[in-house]
């Protein structure tokens, strides 16, 4: 198949998946009750020693979990323990660190817990190759009309080898393990950068003359990095629930970004599907897009069989959620692609690719990181 035919096929596929949820919404649009988000109250930051940047980046992140781990959720956590996990470290470009503890103010205790999710059910999919399930369902995004088009334009590279997603004019959401191994920041976090793809035609190359020309990358330095304490020094099967970090750029960018949303139950996602684009290591220089249905979900994680390889970690996982105000399906970032997890259920190992859910508490935390105040932190 020629590059031109691949481009046409990709265009038709993306057009189809855009039209399908819109068609479904005309038939039976769901009614999502307003999501109540707790208020995160930060304390005065405490200075910490400078980071040693001694850790190695781990792009192929894999964890193990059993039945009790799968069913453990925020609703079972003592309030004090939750507050400890929602505390966060701030790393500055010069290596200086601070720790900020938090409290949560809310009149409704139910708002501290995720919505009820269905119990575990047996799935039919079986693993064929590590992180690739059956036929490879990934699509390379090529050409100016795709690379600079929303939502693909929201995907950015992280200099440690991961992917991130633009969530404001100056912020990038990614996976915590891309910058921190749970004990220390990785080598590359000392001079962390975010890369924006520049299509060949914009950087002076005519794609018609050189069909295999790769896009260039424009790198921007990171001013500040924030990582939740739930990730730092926690057991992997627990800390995977907090595998996210927010990077603040030195300068604002001019590209469109995708807004955050509290992850609904998969039943309230258009087509029960999630989507994400990343820079998979087996396709260097290419932005790779994929989508798939949600297989299972716990209170903190989304389990799926979207094909992915190392390098896709940190991709913004988005879905189309119904906006009651606009009365239409809207793309929202509802999670962060983390990696791979083996689940031991009833003596049987089952494998999934996993994304971290944005729960009401995580939304409140990340929103505070974005805005620097607690007044603007409601799903919009």
Overview of this structure, please?
This protein has 380 residues and is α+β, with helices and mostly antiparallel strands. It is 15% helix and 32% strand. It has 6 helices and 19 strands. It has helices at 3-27, 67-71, 79-86, 144-147, 236-239, 360-371, and strands spanning 39-42, 46-48, 62-66, 88-92, 97-100, 102-105, 139-141, 155-158, 163-166, 171-174, 193-198, 216-228, 245-249, 273-278, 287-297, 301-304, 316-323, 328-345, 348-357. Strands 3, 7, 14, 15, 16, 17, 18 and 19 form an 8-stranded mixed sheet that branches. Strands 8-9-10-13-12-11 form a 6-stranded antiparallel beta barrel. Strand 8 and strand 9 form a beta hairpin. The longest helix has 25 residues, at 3-27. The radius of gyration is 20 Å and the shape is globular. The relative contact order is 0.20. The model is unreliable at 114-130 (pLDDT under 50). This is Serine protease. Belongs to the peptidase S1B family. Keywords: Hydrolase, Protease, Serine protease, Signal.
